[in-house]
Amino acid sequence: MTEAIRQRYAIVDKSTQDSSQSATLEMPKKLHTFEQSEVQLADGTDPPTTTQDDDTSEVPPFSYPEGGLKAYSVVLASCIGMMCDYGFLNSIGAIESYVAQFILVNNSQLGISWVFSIFCFIAFAGNIFSGFVFDRYGARILFIIGSILIVGGLFGTANSSTLWQFVLSFSICCGFGCTLITPPCVSCVGHYFDKKRGLAMGLAISGASIGGVIWPLVCRSLYTKIGFTWTIRVLAFMFMALMAIACVLVDDRRVEIRQHEEQVKREKEKDTATTTTVHSITEGESESSFTFSHVLTYLTSIVDFSLLKDVSYDFLVVALSMNEFSLIVAFTYTPSYALDKGFGQSVSLLSLTIMNAAGIPGRYIPTYLSDKVGYFNMACVTSLCMTVSIFIIWVPFGQNLAAFMVFAVFYGISVAGTLGLIPLCTSAISKPQDYGKAYGTAYFFASFGNLVCLPIGMAITSTKGGFQAMTAFCGSISALCTLFFVLARIKLAGFKRAKI
Length: 500
Prior knowledge:
Blueprint: H1 3-8, E1 9-11, H2 19-22, E2 39-41, H3 69-84, H4 86-89, H5 92-103, H6 109-125, H7 127-137, H8 140-158, H9 163-187, H10 197-249, H11 254-267, H12 292-304, H13 311-340, H14 345-373, H15 375-397, H16 401-428, H17 435-461, H18 466-493
Antiparallel strand pairs: 1-2
Family: Belongs to the major facilitator superfamily. Monocarboxylate porter (TC 2.A.1.13) family.
InterPro entries: MFS (IPR011701), MFS_dom (IPR020846), MFS_trans_sf (IPR036259), Proton-linked_MCT (IPR050327)
Organism: Brettanomyces naardenensis (Yeast)
């Protein structure tokens, strides 16, 4: 419903509505839909019938397959992509600890931390560009180019021996490869599922935890047998095979979405010109007419204006930024923390594996439940569990091996659940044709925290508090994440008991 109609109509509460109905809200993407019986003109007469997003009655809503071979093939492709993308991100601690201990021994710990912080920054900041490419050109081209960059970067990393070589091969090359793969992995699933989106996204995102289990185990097994160089090469060959499969299976429905949007616009009697977005292909324009000016126009609009006007989206972006800040420090330095406590190289890598293994059910169960209780409600719960596990287990008892492993399990479950819910929360408050844009924008802002989180974490370990102070710092940032998830939920539905 447009702003003009909102101002013309007065919203009147239905006094006869029972309490169960008044306490129920639809999903966030339907928050701005008003029922006909709830709206009256100022003079008491009924307004003309309208539908969600100003769609006219002549145009049916966009339909989702909700299953089938094609849809689940896309889920499998996204799962494989997540194994080589987020699974790789979740495993960089296995590389960081070995590089710091055996390869870059003449460099400071702070200098080494920049290798991995630059990698994280590029991997997330580039989502704003790859999200734009996905919305316009689809998933497959991004998968192909991203696969080439990741595999090539790993081969370069295998042969690196100096700090600048690791920055070029690992930070830049692998970072750009990951940033191209991420938006298609999380956005193309939303093109095929609506009611079952939480379940489908949980299956796809679980690839991140599967990869986080496999890659540290590969490193743990091969470091002592064939050395660092050939261990990284083995990873590169495995990535090559997996991403080849993903490139064949991945697909999207951007053309159908655009056609539906154009059909809706043609049926509208007013507001046609004002609802045209940068992504839309207007009559007479084709994808081949793309120019550099389109990129500039897109970047200007996406960063400063459209999405950031929604306060609930702003709260979500801040929550995401705090979440990424905390978990990247925790996942990257968990092996180093274990070494500092005297647990040994094998145990340090095993703890990272356990943390990622716990994330497999952690990514599936919360996303499945979120279809029933609401995406934002569940995100608040999982984020709170992250904070509690840090302050109740890791900070006071982390020096005990058994407690440390218990923390790895609980933290892995809660982190995975939160990560799996973020794409669902983003898609719930954005339009289907803007999934890639909304997700890419959120991670663009989060990436600036990722750039400095590892150097800050390493700097804290250099203080008198050491790694113990770093764990408390992670917990504090995680608590801020929980706070902003709650604020986003309150902004959308207030304090009502609602599915949101």
